[in-house]
Design a protein that fits this description.
- The protein is of the alpha/beta class.
- It has a domain at 1-5 and 10-77.
- It has 4 helices and 6 strands.
- It has helices at 31-40, 58-73, 85-93, 106-111; strands at residues 3-10, 13-19, 29-30, 45-52, 77-81, 102-103.
- It has a 6-stranded mixed beta sheet.
- Helix 2 (58-73) links the parallel strand 4 and strand 5 (77-81).
- It is globular, with a radius of gyration of 13 Å.
């Protein structure tokens, strides 16, 4: 399961640094839970950094889709950053790239929210 290890803000964009497996001894928060908390706080410009995620599974895809829908309902955007080839392949096979934006460069991703 993808978990959120770190969170940081760049302007009005919240970047969630994700990890593909629960690291031993690390405090974790499931991706979907963290997205919901951020939306309640009024933070609806979300960038999910997947640079430390080598693979995703069905529950991760569900969390991304739920986050995308919830964020859109709040008038915001959820975008993806630094996908591994394997993650990109899975998202392409599920046709999620038809609705999700993905970036390799953090600066370009942040600029796309403006």
């Amino acid at each position: 399961m993808v978990v959120v290890l770190k969170e940081r803000n760049v302007g009005s964009v919240t970047i969630l640094e994700c990890f593909g497996r629960q690291p031993a001894g690390e405090r974790k928060q499931a991706l979907n839970d963290r997205v919901q908390v951020l939306l309640v706080e009024g933070r609806a410009r979300l960038l999910l950094d997947f640079s430390q995620v080598s693979a995703i599974y069905s529950e991760d895809i569900s969390a991304i889709v739920r986050g995308f829908i919830s964020t859109a309902r709040e008038g915001g955007k959820l975008k993806l950053l630094k996908l591994s080839p394997r993650v990109r392949q899975v998202l392409d096979a599920t046709r999620l790239f038809n609705v999700l934006e993905a970036f390799d460069d953090e600066s370009a991703a942040i600029a796309s929210f403006e």
